[in-house]
Write a structure and sequence with these properties.
This protein is mainly β and 153 residues long. It has a single domain, classed as Porin (Beta Barrel). 4% of the residues lie in helices and 58% in strands. Strands 1, 2, 3, 4, 5, 6, 7, 8, 9, 10 and 11 form an eleven-stranded antiparallel β-sheet that branches. Strand 5 and strand 6 form a beta hairpin. The protein is globular, with a radius of gyration of 16 Å.
Length: 153
Amino acid sequence: MYDYQLEHIFSYSVTLVQPPEVIGPVGEGIRANFYVAGGEVTGPKVHGRVLPVGGDWLTVRHDGVAILDVRATIETNDGALILVTYPGVSDIGPDGYQRFLEQNLPPIIPLKTVPRFATAHPAYEWLNRCLCLGIGQADLGKSLVSYDIYAVR
């Protein structure tokens, strides 16, 4: 067993633009784009806001697993810009593909991600070296997505 720790570095929540841009069923699943309207970042290491750019280029596979492909920009309270990109997964159930087509999804959907960061700001360059885990959820009724982000140490 390897020695590691998870360090909570920040939490964030974003509001999504509604309605999502649904491309529809294609070969690999249902494609839909969820765009970020803005959000807030709080935590022990990073404070600021998620800018109203970016989004999730989501694919819902035929087995009900949703594959996340997220890109967003964080602006810290001290003016740093941090690009965050991440893949992730969400299991919306074996009938998730059909439920997405019918717009009958569960109100809360769990999300698991692996965020990576890129910044040129000296105070946050340590993020460029981090591998992180994101544990969160999408509250579809509120168009709100929230995560806790942990650095693997």
